[in-house]
Design goal:
Largest sheet: 9 strands, mixed
Strand content: 15-25%
Shape: globular
Radius of gyration: 19 Å
Number of strands: 9
């Protein structure tokens, strides 16, 4: 029987929260830095995140290489730190799942073994598959554990799906949420409209993964007429690589956005301006000017500067900061200090002894 999302976690997920995509801490020899990996998990909890996603793009897909074989290890380390923290609040553990059906199902079983709540199911790397074949894969994973759907942009290995695909996707039992990371307004609209037209519209939480449009996504309501009735839906939280850095500031910004929506859009103009600043910061980290080549080292560089990581090393030696990227990161940190959490991190590291 498929694992179900606990009612208290479902309620928490549906209210919306901040979920960072967990990076991978390595030594200079490109081996797992276990102490550093555990430190990052503790940082996200201390920073006020409502969950973490482990084994995802930010954790590096190479962890699945049989020669490296770190997938289960990173899931286990994060789960141990969360258990040790004994938080008195909800915290959602999400495991990244990818690959063909057999691999995806096997990864879901590993996630369940380590008490993960949901599987973030990537649709990347399946370019030759039909939409029907991919939906059958989703059903197979949903038969193991709750699914967090994932619309990944083509520039980093994803593909474009039809409106009909997302309509059928939303009808699958045990799909509890969808992360939209299409980095494209047209494709984002397809997903939201499809969910609104689905019979399971009330059961699916929408989370932004559009790191280029975080604040605007969280502020926007979508309305569609379905059989004479108007339904409204919006992004109620985010599962983001961008939130792997400056996490405490992201939590504060998220609370500001929620307050704006609850108070008749008071402060909306200032938030939209702040949203552009967040996008500027994201451009420095994610490196779109070099086709996102430096996105993972960019995350590492911020964490390195703060003392949360020892270096920017990746499992793939070719993944390095792009020319000028470190300077861009320094520029945005100086330009928008209120959107960083350097002071919080300094205090956290002082207490985390």
């Amino acid at each position: 029987m498929a694992q179900q999302l606990k009612p208290e976690l479902k309620q928490f997920l549906d209210k919306g929260t901040v979920i960072p995509a967990h990076p991978l801490a390595l030594t200079e020899e490109r081996k797992l830095d276990e102490q550093g990996q555990r430190l990052l998990s503790r940082y996200y909890m201390a920073a006020g995140a409502g969950g973490i996603a482990v084994g995802v793009h930010s954790t590096q897909f190479e962890i699945r290489d049989p020669k490296i074989n770190l997938y289960e290890t990173v899931l286990k380390l994060a789960a141990e730190e969360i258990e040790k923290a004994a938080l008195k609040r909800p915290f959602i553990k999400i495991a990244g799942i990818c690959g063909p059906t057999a691999q995806a199902v096997a990864e879901a079983k590993v996630a369940v073994k380590h008490s993960y709540d949901m599987g973030l199911l990537s649709m990347g790397g399946l370019q030759g598959w039909t939409e029907t074949e991919i939906l059958a894969r989703v059903e197979a994973v949903a038969a193991v554990m709750p699914v967090f759907g994932f619309y990944l942009q083509p520039s980093v290995g994803g593909r474009i799906f039809s409106y009909d695909f997302w309509l059928r996707f939303a009808e699958i039992e045990n799909v509890e949420a969808i992360k939209v990371a299409s980095f494209n307004r047209y494709q984002t609209l397809d997903v939201v409209r499809a969910v609104c037209h689905s019979s399971r519209r009330e059961k699916i939480a929408l989370y932004t993964g559009n790191d280029d449009n975080i604040v605007a996504d969280l502020l926007t309501s979508y309305k569609f007429e379905v059989n004479g009735k108007t339904f409204e839906k919006g992004f109620i939280g985010g599962l983001l690589g961008h939130w792997a850095v400056w996490t405490n500031a992201a939590v504060q910004l998220f609370e500001e956005i929620k307050a704006c929506k609850a108070n008749g859009s008071k402060g909306l103009e200032a938030l939209l301006t702040k949203g552009v600043q967040v996008t500027d910061m994201n451009a420095a980290i994610f490196d779109p000017s070099h086709a996102f080549h430096g996105c993972i080292p960019g995350i590492h560089e911020v964490l390195r500067q703060q003392g949360l990581m020892k270096g920017t090393w990746c499992l793939n030696p070719k993944e390095q900061l792009s020319d000028g990227q470190a300077e861009e990161i320094s520029r945005v940190c100086a330009a928008y200090p209120e959107l960083t959490d350097d002071g919080f991190v300094k205090k956290f590291l002082g207490n985390d002894q």
